[in-house]
Structures are given as structure tokens and as C-alpha cells.
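Cross-posted from the bioinformatics board.
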Amino acid sequence: MSSPDDSANRRPEIRQGEVFDVDGSLWVVVDSFPNEIEAFTSLHCAPVLAPDESPMLDLDVHIERAKGFASLGLLRKLSKPVLNKIVTDATPSELASLRSNLVTWFAVFSYDSDFVTTLPPMSEYNPDLLPGMILGYKKSLVCIIDHWGCYNNYPLIYVAAVVADLEDIGVLDVEITSDYRDLFGKRFFVQVNDFFQVEREELEALLQPSKSIPMLRYAATRRITRSIVLKFGQLNLLL
Amino acid sequence: MTTTTAEQLHPFPDPTESFEFKAFILLDTIVARVKLRVLIELTRLSFLGFYDRFEKFLGQLQFFEDDAVGEEAMKNFVTQRLRLAQNIERLIVRLEPMTKLPFKGSDLADYVAGKDRIEVLRFFIKNTRFEHEAEEIIEHSKVEFLSRFARRKLTREQRNLLVEKYRKISIDQ
């Protein structure tokens, strides 16, 4: 049984949509799933910026009470202890937009239905980066998971680490062994929950005409999308 | 355009349409009332037969799903799994009364099905519901995507500003 002291010492639960002051900058929590699980020590947050600080992208969301917009193009993981000075929170409709826009940002479609045949071709300038590509980046493997960033030719791209033989497999880790194998028969996973951002140019530098790039098949990228839905979309209510 | 049909996707029949599944559904109510050893063993065998088919079915489904090339195919797989989950839910409900009947140091449900297998089936139901819900959300986001994809592209200045902000944040953190 917990004592009154325990409850006094316990940190309040951090909720999706809450805006925190971190060293003078405002950040809105965009993660939904890991908030209630202590094992997740950090959360993805979006900086709340004014229009003169950074361009507002199409999927960015105005946070009225924070007098700025959540920049979904600059998501970053912040550790829970630094999120201790709550300033305000997003309204229910802003929160709904955050969830929906994040899924839109990362969701991978196959464009196989009739009503999307009018889609323009992907970027004319840098068509090479695609979601599902696995690249060797800084002595590690990463998988591109950023559909919207690739499509819009943004200068920053979200990637997630690809790791072998994970010991503690989490709900958000997606196994890709059926698409990506090595000689030693290891199992490979994309750690969706720990995605991070890199500059497009750094990734493009890894693409060489002579080098073939492993690429996940559609089903694996769709599973990654489902994991993203679980991460941002409050589907933990079902679990 | 995807032309894959549900029949092509999995040549293995739905395990809840198997003889074993139907036999279990028939026997379980009798066993709950009359604890005849021979009936209990038949119920157990029916369950194990169904469970074996269930495991093979999931393996095959996964195999075919890995090759899916589009949303229609993925949707078909989710639909198949959802139907299977709904039928398995019936089975779980029918096992419930057996958990109250003591048998061989545990309860009848444990003897007939095994706690681990029941847990696997429960997890399958939960996971399938999640997949279904997630697919609906993704479908909605596709509409969002289509309504926004044609909007402005970033100018060179905006791109630079975004990268600058990213670098500044990277240093600050």
C-alpha cells in the first residue's frame, strides 16, 4: 500500500499536449503511448515556435494558449525530468490535430487506389530518399521512416535505429527480419520509439550509384506506421 | 491496382471453420455439466487440434502479408484476422465457465486449453483490434495527406531557417 509520502513524491503524469518550459523554450509533448510507462524515460516533444523563428510547415499545429505553433518538423526526445515546468496545454481540437497530423506525417501509403492517380511524382530534385530505406549512418544502421519529409523534400529527415537481436523487445519495436537479414541469422528490429532527425544531405551522401540500398517491403513499412499510430494516436486505450 | 483476393492471400482455411473448432463448441457445454473423462479428453483434443491450425494459419498469414504490395492486400489480411479474432472471442467466453470447475489440481479450462494458450489467444484478439483501429486511423490520415500534398514547397530561405533551427536546438539540448 502506498503511503501519503509516496504520493507526494510521485511526479505527476505527463500528458500528450502539455506545454513545458525547458530552459526558456516551450515544448509540447506529442508522445501518447509511453507517458504512463516508467520504462520510457524520455518523450518526443515538438518545439513551440513563433512564425519568425522557423517556417510553419503544412502539418504544424497552432497552440493558441502557447502563442505559437508546434513544429512537427523538429521533433526531439526530451527526458521526463526536464519536463517539470508546465506552462499550458493544447486545446482538445489542437490535440486531435497533433495526433492526426503526426500519423499523416509518418504514414506510408501505397497509392494503389483510383482516387490517388492524380498524385504528382515525388520530388523532382532529390527523388532518392524513400521511407523504408536502410542506410549505414555513423557506424549504425538506420531506417528512413519519414514519409512526409521525403515527399516534400524537407532538409531534415526522421530515421529510426535498426538493431539486431534486441533483448527487451518493446511493443513499438517492429521486426523486419523477413526483409532484412545478415549472414549470421540475427533478428533485426526498427526501434520506432527512438526515432531521431538527421540532415537530408548526410543521408544523400550515403547514396552511391554503385551501391545497392536495402529497402523494406510495403508490409514492413505499414507495420512501422501502425507502431507510429500506437505511439501518437492514443491507441494505448485498447491495450 | 491491386488485384489480390482474400482467397489468394491464404490458401489455408480459417481455423475457426475447422472440424476441431466446431467439435469444441459442441462439446464444451456438455463437459461443463457432465465431467465424463472421455468427453473431457475429446474436448481437449478438439481444442488442441484447433490451436495447432490457428498457429499454422497465423504463420501462413504472416508469410503472405510480408509479400503484400498495397493497402488493399493489407486490409484483406486485417479483415481476415478480425473475423478470426471475433470467433476466437466466442471460444474464450465458452472457456470461462470451465475456469470455475476444479480439475487435476487446477481447473478444467487449464486442463483442456492451458493457461499459456488462452493468454496467446487473448493477446491475439487484443492485437487484432489494435491493428484494425490503426488501419482506420491510417486511412483517415491518407485523406489528410491527399488534401495537403499539393501545398507549397519550402523556399531556399525557409529550408535554411529550418536547418538552422535544428542545429541550434541540437546544440542547446
